[in-house]
Amino acid sequence: MTENLQLEALVDACRWIGAKGWAPATGGNMSVREDADRCWLSESGKDKGSLTGNDFLQVDIATHQVPSGRKPSAETGLHTLIYRLFPEAGAVLHVHTVNATVLSRVEKSAELVLHGYEMQKSLRGQSSHLDDVSIPVFDNDQDIDALARRIEHYATERPLSYGFLLRGHGLTCWGRDVAEARRHLEGLEFLFECELRLRQLEKP
Ligand SMILES: CSC[C@@H](O)[C@@H](O)C(=O)COP(=O)(O)O
Ligand SMILES: [Zn+2]
Questions:
Q1: Which of 41, 88, 151, 179 has the most beta carbons within 10 angstroms of its beta carbon?
Q2: CATH among 3.30.190.30, 3.30.420.270, 1.10.287.130, 3.40.225.10 for 5-202
Q3: Global confidence as pTM
């Protein structure tokens, strides 16, 4: 397993996420794609800031079968959905940051629209602060299959890029590899904090 460089990069990313305080109290889950059919997903219930390579379980993307017999993340269905929807996705990071949790509740509509921030250019393909970046906000659900179906339906009607918010829960984002998923996470988190502060300051 250690010869998988993306898995090593993911272990590093998890330590970074833990040090940032973005995966408190076992919250969060992370994965990398192995190939078209399989990914490596964090084991359920662990402290995601102190994972090693052995804490990642091979999961079949189509069937959710786990050869080890161990229990992957409770949110496995969201990771596998992303790998199914986006063949170019190579890594998925789900975090419970304070900014994502609060902003997703402050934003009452189904999409958070970011506009006017230079840091929008941290997201792949974005080249101007003058463009709108829409991040969908899905109502949270303990039924992950139902939640995945809602997200899949959204993706049939609207572009879905970079990541989505789960209301009162957190952010799930992805990239072509771990480095890009990390950049999207850091960029979005920065943008969420700016947006939250701006809304507080502009509140009548
Ligand atoms: C602190 S419990 C949070 C979980 O319910 C879930 O949202 C989460 O992110 C972690 O679940 P896990 O099964 O460990 O991947
Ligand atoms: Zn979660």
A1: 41
A2: 3.40.225.10
A3: 0.98
